[in-house]
Amino acid sequence: MKKILLALPVCAALSLGGCSNMSNTQQRTLSAGAIGAAAGAGIALIADGNPVWGALGGAAIGAIGTYVYDKHQQPN
Length: 76
Known about the structure:
Layout: H1 2-17, H2 24-46, H3 51-73
Helix pairs in contact: 2-3
């Protein structure tokens, strides 16, 4: 149990450290995908659906929508 409690912060630090070289568009897309996955899973659970499919759909909608919006807002 102690190894798991130690591994969680280490994994979190390593995964967040990987985002340091990302552009603003990439960071926003990743964040929106994660938020969309959580929202999709939650909505699927409330609606008695499969939370895995809800998470996949929410992640796709969040990431693609944010990427397209961010590219549209950037000047050429």
